[in-house]
Amino acid sequence: MKRLAYVSRATSVLAPGELQTIATAAQANNRRLDITGVLTYDDGVFFQELEGPEAAVDALADRIRVDPRHRDMVVISVENGDLARHHPAWAMRVINLGDEPDSGYLRPVIARLSQAIRTVGRYTQPAVFRLLESGIDPTTAPARRVQRAVLCCDVRAFSAFAQALAPDRLAAFITVFVDVCVGCVSARGGEVTKIIGDAVLAHFPRECSGEALAAALDILTTLARIRRQAAANAPERYLHVGVGLAAGEVFEGNVGSGFKLDYTILGDPVNHAARLEALTRTQATALLFEEAFAASLPPEWSTIAIGRHHLKGRDDQTTISTVDLPIVRELPSSRLAEELAWCLDVGPSASQSRPKA
Ligand SMILES: Cc1cc2nc3c(=O)[nH]c(=O)nc-3n(C[C@H](O)[C@H](O)[C@H](O)COP(=O)(O)O)c2cc1C
To answer: Fewer CB within 10 Å, N side or C side of the chain?
Structure first.
């Protein structure tokens, strides 16, 4: 016997009779599958408990998950074993909580549960939330070694912004950067695993290195558009970033103690991506990657080597490359600092006249 409970959100407000349509089909199917349970609906939120033979419950849950009438299905409880059914008499008891005074007390409980899950989801790495969604306890997920393409992206001259901007304005400024990174990385199938102040760490399966590079270029292109469209004295006008890309084997799993857990990736490619990002500051380019990353790119990408460097943490020198596209060519850092100082009215150039473009 298996019992599985989940919450989800209706794709749109249910039309009258729609809950009954779901109920009628569910009851006919469930009777055949020896499944019993309850389905509640209130104000756009479903709660359902399914109980029955394990394989039948799993197969039905998979089918329900992809039903377009709802989304954001998160499994909140899974039990296995010799269980007594909670709803032995119901192939599927369906309750519209708004119509049932006796169940009214459940309405705020389920609504808050659904809201809390969505809030947690927004603060949680996608890898962890995916496990939570499918009812797996992420704290028990085994660590593993995997091949990844790693992307590290960092805001140029962030300390100048941090000094000059009021906290709310600084948060709005960083939100622009984070939204661009998360949007571009997700659209290319990658995953943002960490946002550390003004830096974003993301990863892709190693065989998707081309997508990682495309995501980096998307970030640079989107930020260039934001800079062009920003008001003359808005900090976004000076929102430049550096991107480092590296590839190789990383550890993926839980680190930390009972007080604070992190599901993360660790290893040389992560360190190298961060160091390559730092190196962009002195190379007048917004994008750099190392040999292993270049080697895993599909042949359609043409790259240019810009020299050999000794990256901290590596014994040997590695060839550093970029792509020959206008979008990666950058203001040298000194010039950027001058521009910034003028704009933000901080730093040594603050009292001087505006540097010529
Ligand atoms: C919130 C929700 C709960 C559902 N519960 C069940 C269920 O308990 N049993 C079921 O067979 N289908 C359920 N469905 C419908 C399934 O997603 C799917 O449409 C149905 O199983 C297909 O049945 P059919 O092959 O007979 O058309 C549910 C759908 C939604 C949106």
So the answer is: C
